[in-house]
Prior knowledge:
Elements: E1 2-6, H1 10-21, E2 25-30, H2 33-38, E3 45-48, H3 54-58, E4 67-70, H4 76-88, E5 94-97, H5 101-109, E6 114-116, H6 118-131, E7 137-140, E8 145-151, H7 161-164, H8 166-170, E9 173-184, E10 190-196, E11 211-217, H9 218-228
Parallel strand pairs: 1-2, 1-4, 2-3, 4-5, 5-6
Antiparallel strand pairs: 7-8, 8-11, 9-10, 9-11
Amino acid sequence: MKYIVIGLGNFGLVLSTRLTELGHEVIGIDRDMTRVEQYKDKITSTICMDTNDAHSLGMLPLDECDAVVVAIGEDFGSSVMTAAHLKHMGVTRIIGRAINDLHSTVLSAIGVVEILTPEKDSAERFANKMQLSGVVDSFQVSDKCAIIEAPVPQAYWGDTIEEVDLETRFKVKLVTVKRKIPQRNLFGQLTEAPQVLTDVSQELILMEGDSLVVFGTMKDLQRMFDWSV
């Protein structure tokens, strides 16, 4: 797939390099030539451009791209102006990054449907880690519900999925289990890498080092982990 990422700050750079690593074609754009030169070997291609200029923006292969990401954060005016130009040019999929609620409101007002709030999302995920002991990662589905990944508590080691019975006991639904599988790296050294188990039966025995990926309300998730401490 082809993407244009406008703004090579921290968020835009990570997004661009990761998409490139995944095999996508990415055009990274920034008005700072130093950044463009610095990251040209990490991204498919980089261009130095002021996207406030509609004429310059129109020179990009917008019709050939699957999405244009406006990753500009701190420069509120430039972010909104760029998104407005893209909308006026008829770009089908525009993804905007917002740094606060006002920024998000303005982007929505000009017709940007997909809006990312990485700082807010990151803070919410970290809050879940602080609230629930041992949480590895989390995804907030709504104000009350979340999907979280956490190590299997010691109380569950050696129990089967059926014996633990999370759904009946805590009203928490098990999504999957991650387990560390021994494998050799490029240097032939034996290491353990976490893998998602695709076949999680009721007879699966939970082991030390496993992680549970579960869905539920924050209240039920808290109750589950309080019980297991």
